[in-house]
Amino acid sequence: MTTVTRALALGAFGLLAASTSALATECIAPANPGGGWDFTCRQVARIMQEIGAIDAPMVVTNMNGAGGGVAFTYVVTDRNEDADLIVAASSATTTRLAQNAFAGATADQVRFLGAIGGDPGVIVVAKDSPLKNLGDMVAAIKADPGSVAFAGGSAVGGFDHMKPLQVMKAAGFDDITKIKYIGVDGGADAITQTVGGFTQAMTGDMSEIVGFIKSGDVRALAVLTEERVPGFEDIPTAREQGFDVVAVNWRGLYVPKGISDDQFNAWAAKLQQVADSAEWQKVMTENGLAPFVKVGGDFQSWVDGVIVETVALSKEIGVIQ
């Protein structure tokens, strides 16, 4: 499998690599073109060259399969010491690693480099919902856990499912297995479920609900960020409403574990340059991303904590033993 994968990657990108330096830097997007990981690789690659962080175009390789697992295994087994390689990652990556979705792979087999933006988590209801704020939602669930069903674009136990569970845990509600969650095929379907009255709330990311907010079809009860999101300042955070929950679908990167500390720090410096650039600020504004910058050792420590929390929640709801 790895031999075939490598051959495909070399065949698809050999011309580009040959036209630049002998060993061009590379970003692997662990999915097909058009998704979030592809977006991360292509924007970071473009901006790094534009601002002079790299001196030749970066190769972008799409490597779909197993929700990021094919790329993760390939990096660990075939590219462990490759200092010219970075790999796109997000909250989905750490959630799947925490839940052993990559067949025994663990987060400590790579080094998490940093996150430079985030798609804010949100909890929304239909425009005519009696739930006016997060406190109303929490009170309704405490009174009758089955009275509020959530629709989300991830499977049971996925990142969308975790968001309302975190809110309820922060509210002191421990019987989270009683909370209803319906996993559907993406955020658009989840919104449809809620607007149509089939569920009482939707849990997802800001990018999925922007159009529905602007049209007035839904109301956001909370955004799960540290501060209100620029351009959507009328949506309060969960923290403002008394629930200490931050759930951001971060966009970032990991690198092979076997590279040296100097090589890791060099990549961290390049990624920080991207985060600080006017070019990246423009990309975030145009794509509804919120500021969320953690680069280097601080990000690795943060990821470690997130995985511990995800494992605990996943065990509570029976996703893992």
Pairing-aware structural class of the strands and helices? alpha/beta
Count of beta strands? 10
Overall helicity: 40-55%
Radius of gyration: 20 Å
From the N-terminal CA to the C-terminal CA, the straight-line distance is 30 Å
Described by strand count, sense and barrel closure, the largest sheet is: 10 strands, mixed
Mean pLDDT: 89
The number of distinct helices, counting runs of at least 4 residues, comes to 11
Morphology: globular
Oligomer classification? single chain
Strand content: 15-25%
Polypeptide structure, described:
This protein is an alpha/beta fold. Helix content is 43%, strand content 19%. Strands 1, 2, 3, 4, 5, 6, 7, 8, 9 and 10 form a 10-stranded mixed β-sheet that branches. Helix 2 links the parallel strand 1 and strand 2. The longest helix is centred in the last third of the chain and has 20 residues. The N terminus is likely disordered.
Short synopsis of the structure:
This protein has 321 residues and is α/β, with parallel strands linked by helices. It contains eleven helices and ten strands. Residues 1-22 have low confidence and may be disordered.
Keywords:
globular; alpha/beta; 11 helices; disordered N terminus; 10 strands; about 20% strand; 10-stranded mixed β-sheet; about 325 residues
Helices, strands, pairings?
Elements: H1 2-19, E1 26-29, H2 36-50, E2 59-62, H3 69-78, E3 85-90, H4 91-98, E4 110-126, H5 134-143, E5 149-152, H6 159-170, E6 180-183, H7 187-195, E7 201-205, H8 206-215, E8 218-223, E9 248-256, H9 261-276, H10 278-287, E10 294-295, H11 297-316
Parallel strand pairs: 1-2, 1-3, 5-6, 5-7
Antiparallel strand pairs: 3-9, 4-7, 4-8, 4-9, 4-10
